[in-house]
Amino acid sequence: MQEKGNVKQQIKEIPPFSFDESSDLPMWVQLRNRMAYLITSGFYKPGEKLPTVRKYAAELRIAYNTVSKAYMGLERDGYVTTVRGSGVFVNDPDAILKPAPEVDALVEEFVKGCLENGMAYDDIPKMVSSCVRRMKKDYEKAQG
Fold first, then answer.
1. Pairing state of beta strands 7-9 and 87-90?
2. Residue 10 and residue 111: Cα distance in Å, rounded?
């Protein structure tokens, strides 16, 4: 049992997870995405304390830094808040910034267009990642 304020909390067991070795996504991104899903699906509830980075790393048999980077990504994206000396706590998923409906519609139209042009679902994120990396590199080159 852990205490947050005067309320005792039990930390949930870590659900099973396997990494997709064939994915272009780094392990920390796959873990971050899985944990974000566990938060938005309600497995981890708002205010609940997540297992420690060390516990996650040991349980999944991966490097501490991989889990740490996933936790930092979750915090950056608003899914969790780190309280120094107390742990990492889940934020309310409804309070997390969601894209505007117009942006969501643009993404949906883009995906439909890719599919209509013969792309497979699994290839679309790879193409988008590649494009974003290229555009970011070009932007940084133009700025610097």
1. unpaired
2. 41
Q: Give pLDDT tens digits for 35-94.
A: 999 998 899 999 999 999 999 999 999 999 999 999 999 999 889 999 999 999 999 987
**Three-class DSSP category at 49:** strand
Write out the two tokens for 134. Answer: 């290229």
Strands (E), 68-121: 80-83, 87-90
Task: List all residues 6 or more positions away from 126 whose beta carbon is below 8 Å from its beta carbon.
Answer: 24
Partners of residue 4 on adjacent β-strands: 7
Is 0.70 surpassed by the pTM of this model? no
Q: Are 89 and 4 spatial neighbours (Cβ–Cβ below 8 Å)?
A: yes
For β-strands 2-4 and 80-83, DSSP reports them as: unpaired
Question: Per DSSP, what are the bridge partners of residue 90?
Answer: 80
Best CA proximity match to 23, nearest among 39, 15, 14, 34: 34
Burial of 4 (0-12, 13-18, 19+ CB in 10 A): middle
Contact by Cβ (8 Å): 55, 15: no
